[in-house]
Amino acid sequence: MQVDFIHGDPSRPEFGDMFGGWLTEHAGRTFLIDCGVGSGGPTLVRRLKERLGGRPLDYVLLTHIHLDHAGGLADIFKAWPETLAVVHEKGRAHLARPERLWAGTREVMGELADMYGRPEPVDPARLLPHPEARLPGVEIFETPGHAVHHLSFRLGGTFFLGEAGGCPYYSGGRLFSRPATPPRYFPDLLAATLEKLLAEPDGPAYVGHTHEMIPGRECLRLYRSQLAFWDEFVRRPESARRIDEDPAGHLDRLIGRLFQEDPNLAPLNALPPPARWRERYFMRNSLEGFVRHYEDQARESA
């Protein structure tokens, strides 16, 4: 299966070409899996038109509605009036009326959300909710964990896992990973999702924001082991936040230790400073998900 990653340029250069979607043809239809940030929507549309050369774009398959994966949908719909999108039923209303989606993004990301771009509402009639959506040749899996409304897709044996398998990357020919566990973190849901996907036949996969095809089962096993390491790390007594310790400083110190102790993060130290800042930023969100979850557990059991 021919799969091309088509990216839209965000407004900040340190994010490079990491946002966009995977374009492929299968069973006589053209699919785009995810569509990147809203600020990259016009560029994404232009590049898709160049690649499609007048052919239709039949469907957008959304793994989830976070704005780095679904923010460009309004531009896609304007450019291709016949295109439909498949989305989890829990996310459909938020794309049609994105006020709460935007407020939640701003709460988690602060001013960096402006780089993603404020989402425009889309016509709900063009949003096919899972599980009602039935597309020939497309298998749809509910894969909650990164988000409760997360979906994964399989087309012709190729998996598109969104962030259900973390954020893997290659360095020196070896596969590494960083977690994708934003607040809120749902460890039980994510663990069940990984076991569910691992029970499926192995196949090539596109995961996170990686442009390369990777071995699906290897990625999922790596992510499972990394989550176990972070779980043990956050539960250590020396990782607990003291009552007088500021949350931001606490997270920064934990990240510094993780860069030293988690072997899957070591190659990130070699990135140029802007890209290293970007990766630390996303890691900080992931770590906050862990910390909040276990601090909530501790309060409930006290």
Question: What key attributes describe this structure?
Answer:
single chain, 302 residues, alpha/beta, six-stranded mixed sheet, five-stranded mixed sheet, 10 helices, 13 strands, 40% helix
Could you explain how this protein is built, in words?
The protein has 302 residues and is an alpha/beta fold. The chain has helices spanning 41-52, 67-70, 73-79, 89-96, 99-109, 113-116, 187-198, 216-235, 247-261, 273-301; strands at residues 3-7, 20-26, 29-33, 59-61, 84-88, 127-130, 138-142, 151-155, 158-162, 167-171, 174-178, 204-207, 214-215. Helix 9 (247-261) crosses helix 10. The radius of gyration is 19 Å and the shape is globular.
Task: Specify the biggest β-sheet.
Answer: 6 strands, mixed
Rounded mean pLDDT is 92
Q: What is the topology, as strand order, of the major beta sheet?
A: 1-2-3-4-5-6
Percent helix among the residues?
A: 40-55%
Which structural class do the helices and strands define?
alpha/beta
Low-confidence stretches: none
In short:
It contains ten helices and 13 strands. The chain has helices at 41-52, 67-70, 73-79, 89-96, 99-109, 113-116, 187-198, 216-235, 247-261, 273-301; strands at 3-7, 20-26, 29-33, 59-61, 84-88, 127-130, 138-142, 151-155, 158-162, 167-171, 174-178, 204-207, 214-215.
